[in-house]
Amino acid sequence: MFVLTIASGGIQYGQVIEFESGGMKYQSLSRNGITVMFAYLPTHVREYSVIQVAISNGSPIAQAVKPEDFVYQRENGERIAATPARDVINELIHKARRSDVIKLVTTYESGLYGTSRINSTNGYEQRRQSALAEVQSAKIKAAATASAIAMVPTRLTVGESTDGAVFFATDRKPLGAGRLSFRAGGEYFQFKFSGED
C-alpha cells in the first residue's frame, strides 16, 4: 500500500509497512527520519476506542508529539480527534472500574511486549516503573498504571522514542473503516484502516 501526500513543492511517496506481532496488526510509516507505528487495540475502555502508538525520532532535530495530533476520519467523512491524555487520565482515575483498568493494561501490555519492534526510550515502561516506584496503595498503583499507558505530550530529542495508548471518544462503538492521520515535524502520516476489531 502506498500513501500519496503533497508536500512543499512536490509529491512524495511513503510506503506503509504492515506486519503482525503478538496477534496484533501493525502499520508503520517513516518520513524524513520520523517513524510512526500503530495498532488498533481490540478493547474499549469506557466510551473510548484505543490504538497503541510508537513514535521514533531519527530526524536531525527535536520533535514535539502529542496524542491530540492524531485524527481518525471515518469513511462517511466524520472526523474524530484523539482525546487529550489529561482528560483520559482524569476519567480513568475517577470513573474507571477496576475491570476497565485490568482490561486496558492486559491488552496494552500484550501488544507492547508481544512485539520486538518497539524499543521505546521514553514510553510506557519507563512511565509505569516511575509511577509504581512512588506509591504503596494497590488502588493508587492501578490508577498510576492506567495513567502511564496514555501517550502524553512529549518532546523527543534526536534518537528518542515514545509509545502509548491514544484514545478516541466513540461511545463504545468501533472506529470502523477509515483513515488515521498524524502530523509531526512538518511531515504528514496517513494510514488506511479497515475497521477490523
Kindly describe this structure:
It is a single chain. 25% of the residues lie in helices and 43% in strands. The radius of gyration is 16 Å and the shape is globular. Mean pLDDT is 78; it is low at 1-13. Helix 1 runs antiparallel to helix 4, helix 2 crosses helix 4 and helix 3 packs antiparallel against helix 4. The strands form four sheets. A five-stranded antiparallel beta sheet has the order 3-4-5-6-11, covered by helices on one side. The chain has one domain (2-193). It is of the alpha+beta class. Strand 3 (17-21) and strand 4 (24-31) form a beta hairpin. It is built from four helices and 13 strands.
List the helices and strands and how they pair.
Layout: E1 2-7, E2 10-15, E3 17-21, E4 24-31, E5 34-45, E6 48-57, E7 63-65, E8 70-74, E9 79-81, H1 85-95, H2 98-113, H3 124-133, H4 138-149, E10 154-156, E11 161-169, E12 178-184, E13 187-193
Antiparallel strand pairs: 1-2, 3-4, 4-5, 5-6, 6-11, 7-10, 8-9, 8-12, 12-13
Helix pairs in contact: 1-4, 2-4, 3-4
Major sheet summary line? 5 strands, antiparallel
Q: What is the percent of helical residues? A: 10-25%
Range of strand content: 35-45%
Q: Roughly how many Å is the radius of gyration?
A: 16 Å
Q: Helix/strand/pairing class, anyone? A: alpha+beta
SSE string, helices as H and strands as E = EEEEEEEEEHHHHEEEE
Tally of DSSP β-strands: 13
Number of helical segments? 4
Mean pLDDT: 78
Q: What's the structural domain tally?
A: 1
Strand arrangement in the largest pleated sheet: 3-4-5-6-11
Query: Uncertain regions: pLDDT < 50 for 5+ in a row?
Result: 1-13
Q: Kindly, what is the distance between the CA atoms of the first and last residues, rounded to a whole number of angstroms?
A: 20 Å
Principal-axis shape equals: globular
